[in-house]
Amino acid sequence: MKIVNAKVIVTSPDRNFVTLKIFTDEGVYGIGDATLNGRELAVAAYLQEHVIPCLTGKDPLQSEDIWQFLYRGAYWRRGPVTMSAIAAVDTALWDIKAKAAGMPLYQLLGGKSRDSVMVYGHANGRDIEETADEVAKYIELGYRAIRAQRGIPGLGSTYGVSTDKMFYEPADAELPSENSWSSERYLDHVPVLFDRLRDRFGFEPHLLHDVHHRLTPIEAARLGKSLEDYRLYWLEDAVTAENQEGFRLIRQHTVTPLAVGEVFNTIWDCKQLIEEQLIDYIRTTVAHAGGITHLRRIADLAALYHVRTGCHGATDLSPVCMGAALHFDLWVPNFGVQEYMLHSEKTEGVFPHAYSFDKGSMHPGDTPGHGVDIDEELAAKYPYQRAYLPVNRLQDGTMWNW
Ligand code: GCO
Ligand code: MG
């Protein structure tokens, strides 16, 4: 089998997505997600100008060699743009391989390790009661794991709190909008939310919370400690993680489980975190961490150190990434949970898929490949729209982490 051609499809059915489609001489094609929120066209150009010319003529079944060729061969290693591009190629090649074998992708990874995949949804509200009512809705829908975020009094807007509850979309403006932040206010208000949620819902539902990189290690340690009684499933992105050692300090002070990694792109970004058992869940996913080939490598390292997976699954990961991630989740022995944010109806129309949701769990489906396709005619109706994630400032105007 030979790769004869590949193309990049940029479409914006309510939000931007970049999709790579690889064609073979046997008529089988594969697709991969290359979406990098707010930087979409950089990955599209990387693929178009620097990757696609190298693919023609290669055997698509040699996905490992192609991965190494693109990673080692670029000389310039790692980075979100490069790794998203490599991920898209890798996902498309696994799609081709599984289609050629006539099997769902999870069978090629080693078959299923569970019947279905537990997912968590996002409940958010401007205040405690609104968030609690949202949690109740998710419980009614059958979710067993729910992330809860609340607005913080005195702050105009807060990460994770949307106007349209079920479709949270942070890339909300043509140029970055500005949020304001106070760690002091936040630290005072979050424990009260979880106190209320445990009081109303008991300890049966798994509750999660995302700090979105806002705290320093000592502040995160304090938050983790003050949440211990509410037994969170995880506390996510408590601090920025360029400095992996920062987690050591948090770990020394709290038994609240820690998750991190949605912005990581390689095993090198989490090596120390995993080997020193500074985290409990690794959030890397297919589209941003080098595809199935590399994600599997991260998961295998994590398994040695009791770290479980919790793949990122926000709306800026396309259904192609979601489908591929669900195959990975169904197989991976050290699975924890999968994030699932609903895509809009328009997005669902552009990306027909075999995966399905039932009572808080998902299944990737059994069609050959990863089971997600792209309707190119429909995709063409939604041209790219520039959209940025917000930026964040402290109340005195200092730039902070969004
Ligand atoms: C999450 C994430 C997202 C990110 C988004 C950025 O936990 O789902 O934090 O909401 O903010 O993916 O592109
Ligand atoms: Mg997050």
The H-and-E topology, N to C, reads as: EEEHHHHEHEEHEHEHEHEHEHEHEEHEE
Q: Look at the structure and give the mean pLDDT.
A: 96
Computed structural class: alpha/beta
Uncertain stretches: none
Alpha plus pi helix count:
13
Number of strands: 16
Task: Give the helices and strands, then pairings.
Layout (H helix, E strand, L loop, with lengths): L2 E9 L5 E8 L4 E5 L6 H16 L7 H10 L7 H22 L3 H5 L7 E9 L2 H13 L4 E6 L27 E4 L1 H19 L4 E5 L6 H10 L7 E3 L9 H8 L4 E3 L10 H5 L5 E2 L8 H14 L3 E2 L9 H13 L6 E2 L5 H6 L5 E3 L2 E3 L12 H4 L11 E4 L4 E2 L2
Parallel strand pairs: 4-5, 4-12, 5-7, 6-15, 7-8, 8-9, 9-10, 10-11
Antiparallel strand pairs: 1-2, 2-3, 4-14, 13-14, 15-16
Helix pairs in contact: 1-3, 2-3, 3-10, 5-6, 6-7, 7-8
